[in-house]
């Protein structure tokens, strides 16, 4: 069995939910973005196969969900993310809805949350002055003030983009996966995963907040650190890294045709002990 033991209060909570004595917490819509870049050799060409890197954050120990885990940028959908005032380029909400099995309004919120959370947690903005351009630089005090206002919810994504005359670039995103937090968790998310290439000219920065460390890592390197116990990887992150480790370049990932399958780990009692059972045997956790 591919799973994780649930000791103590986690096991008791799982038993209570399985028996019907406790109702699961509703899952909130959320979006996660795997931001990628290619590693180039000293001559400026692409490195060896597997040279692709992904941007990861270590969640601060004070966080109530996945504290200390290495994750990709992401977070819950803000109700204002579905604002139709957002200027939009690329596949429309209906298209994203068909891919992710959601209605158009939910899909709009998911795509906007993906763009907003990426900017909040990395400083990278998937938007531009026109439908075929992207912002070249997001550094400087005015950008930082807007980023902090978005985090504090003093500013909505639509207000931010419209004030700057920017178009959301949905075409820079690709769908990757769909994970739902197990019923037994006290904080749950219905999360759609996206992948995106690092826009030319932009750069990530240590933005603080929910994360206390950021790093660009090759997927295989991150998996190796996880296997050695040097970093903590949650099952969705582990599986995503395992999948991406099979690609050599960002272009190869972006060109991949994905069938989005929903994964939701479940609790089960095995020989009197409670376990969190992972979706399949193909991506066995270390």
Write up what this structure looks like.
- With 286 residues, the chain is of the alpha+beta class.
- It has one domain: Nucleoside Triphosphate Pyrophosphohydrolase, CATH 3.90.79.
- The chain is 29% helix and 24% strand.
- It has eight helices and 14 strands.
- The strands form three sheets. Strands 2, 3, 4, 5, 9, 10, 11 and 12 form an eight-stranded mixed β-sheet that branches. The chain has a three-stranded antiparallel β-sheet with strand order 1-14-13, with helices on one face.
- The mean pLDDT is 90.
Concise summary:
By secondary structure, the chain is of the alpha+beta class. Helix content is 29%, strand content 24%. The strands form 3 sheets. Strands 2, 3, 4, 5, 9, 10, 11 and 12 form an 8-stranded mixed sheet that branches. It has a 3-stranded antiparallel sheet with strand order 1-14-13, with helices on one face.
Overall 3D shape: globular
CATH A-level architecture: Alpha-Beta Complex
- N- to C-terminal separation? 13 Å
Q: Percent of residues in beta strands?
A: 15-25%
Features:
eight-stranded mixed β-sheet, 286 residues, alpha+beta
What order do the helices and strands come in, and which of them pair?
Blueprint: E1 3-5, H1 8-19, E2 28-38, E3 52-59, E4 70-71, E5 74-76, E6 88-89, H2 93-100, H3 104-122, E7 127-128, H4 141-151, H5 157-164, E8 167-169, E9 173-180, E10 189-197, E11 211-217, H6 219-227, H7 235-244, H8 250-254, E12 262-263, E13 266-270, E14 273-277
Parallel strand pairs: 2-10, 6-8, 9-12
Antiparallel strand pairs: 1-14, 2-3, 2-5, 3-4, 3-11, 7-8, 9-10, 13-14
């Amino acid at each position: 069995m591919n799973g994780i033991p649930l000791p103590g209060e986690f096991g008791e909570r799982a038993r209570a939910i399985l028996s019907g004595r406790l109702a699961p917490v509703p899952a909130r819509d959320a979006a996660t973005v795997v931001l990628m870049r290619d590693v180039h050799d000293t001559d400026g060409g692409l490195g060896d196969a597997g040279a692709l890197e992904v941007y990861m954050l270590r969640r601060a120990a004070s966080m109530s969900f996945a504290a200390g885990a290495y994750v990709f940028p992401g977070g819950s959908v803000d109700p204002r993310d579905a604002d139709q005032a957002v200027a939009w380029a690329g596949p429309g909400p209906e298209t994203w809805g068909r891919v992710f099995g959601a209605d158009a309004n939910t899909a709009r919120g998911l795509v906007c949350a993906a763009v907003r959370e990426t900017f909040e947690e990395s400083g990278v903005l998937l938007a531009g002055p026109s439908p075929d351009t992207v912002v070249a630089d997001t550094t400087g005090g005015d950008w930082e003030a807007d980023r902090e206002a978005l985090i504090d919810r003093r500013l909505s994504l639509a207000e931010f983009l419209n004030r700057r005359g920017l178009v959301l670039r949905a075409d820079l995103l690709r769908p990757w996966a769909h994970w739902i937090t197990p019923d037994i968790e006290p904080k749950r998310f219905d999360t759609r995963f996206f992948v995106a290439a690092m826009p030319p000219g932009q750069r990530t920065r240590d933005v603080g907040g929910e994360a206390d460390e950021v790093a660009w890592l090759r997927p295989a390197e991150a998996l190796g650190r996880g296997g050695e116990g040097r970093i903590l990887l949650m099952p969705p992150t582990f599986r995503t890294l395992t999948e991406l480790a099979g690609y050599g370049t960002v272009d190869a990932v972006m060109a991949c045709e994905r069938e989005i399958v929903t994964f939701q780990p479940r609790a089960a009692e095995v020989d009197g002990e409670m376990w969190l059972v992972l979706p399949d045997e193909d991506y066995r956790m270390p």
